[in-house]
Amino acid sequence: TRVTYFFRAMIPGVALVLLVTAFPIIFQFLGPNRIDAVAQGSISNPFRADFFGSVIPTGIEQISPQFMSSLGNKFTGGSAVENGSYIGIPLAVLFFIVLVRFRRNQWVRLAGVMAFLSWLISLGPTLVFGAHATSIPLPFDFLGQFPLFSDILPSRVSLFETFFVVVTVALGFGLWRDQFLSRELDGAPLARIDRGGITKRASLFILVGLVFISLIPRWPIATVSNVGSVPSFFSSSAANEIPDGSVVLTYPYLYPYNDETPLLWQMKDNYRWRLVGGVILVPGPSPKSVITYP
């Protein structure tokens, strides 16, 4: 019965998706100027989660002892932008409690397995243990050899680890609620709840509170002053020669790794015009090379 329902839903769904996406997919993989080389280089880059990344905070968490944050800040090659694997010890403990307590529930098992697989893939091709790279191979060492997978930054898969951890915990709370309500429907008065039950519930509420506390971000975030200069042109009447709402091509060119100066000019002129900029990847001279142009 389930297989019949599966195909009844999937066949029209897949047909509709292919109808809409067939041309862009074919153009991407078979069209002119396509890139056959690895653009991100998931095997060689340092953007992979650390084995301890889920439980050791970095400098962007409010509750972050120095001896822990000094280690956490080294994860993913020291990039705070790519290090998103932290969920905190309290949430990890709560996740495992739910997983053990409701292990017979198929949805809890599914979400738990997906969380584990996401965590495993986020570790990258080889294990990084306490900011020390090892040669121990992991599943991504095999997956990263295939097209599409080769351009994945493993550390970003930790987003899905967090998602499935939260789904598992949410399922657990729903099951706990159902158990509590079923006791009331069976006529068990609240006054008869034993001390052990009260202790367990109190411990659960304390653990939930610790989850929120451990995830409080550090605020305010330390900032660095921008010392870019703004030409006098943008503070004079000459700047009015730029029509309102027009698109301006600046020099230096606006691209993600050097965008402060043109944005300052735009701000100085009250955002009357828009900026054009970005990065383009094109095939290199050899079949497996790529060139990045700002």
Q: Beta-strand percentage? A: 5-15%
Number of E strands: 6
Q: For the largest beta sheet, what order do the strands appear in spatially?
A: 1-2
Structural class: mainly alpha
Query: Unreliable stretches, pLDDT < 50, 5 or more residues?
Result: none
Radius of gyration: 26 Å
Q: What is the straight-line distance between the termini?
A: 55 Å
How would you concisely characterize the structure shown here?
The protein has 294 residues and is mainly alpha-helical. It has helices at 2-30, 66-72, 89-101, 106-122, 140-143, 158-185, 195-214, 260-268, and strands at residues 126-129, 132-137, 247-248, 274-275, 280-283, 290-293.
Description:
This protein is mostly helical and 294 residues long. It has eight helices and six strands. It has helices spanning 2-30, 66-72, 89-101, 106-122, 140-143, 158-185, 195-214, 260-268, and strands at residues 126-129, 132-137, 247-248, 274-275, 280-283, 290-293. The chain has a two-stranded antiparallel sheet with strand order 1-2. A two-stranded parallel sheet has the order 3-4. It has a two-stranded antiparallel ribbon with strand order 5-6. A hairpin with a 2-residue loop joins strand 1 (126-129) and strand 2 (132-137). Helix 3 (89-101) packs across helix 6 (158-185), helix 3 (89-101) packs across helix 7 (195-214) and helix 4 (106-122) packs antiparallel against helix 6. The longest helix has 29 residues, at 2-30. The radius of gyration is 26 Å and the shape is globular. The chain starts with a helix and ends with a strand.
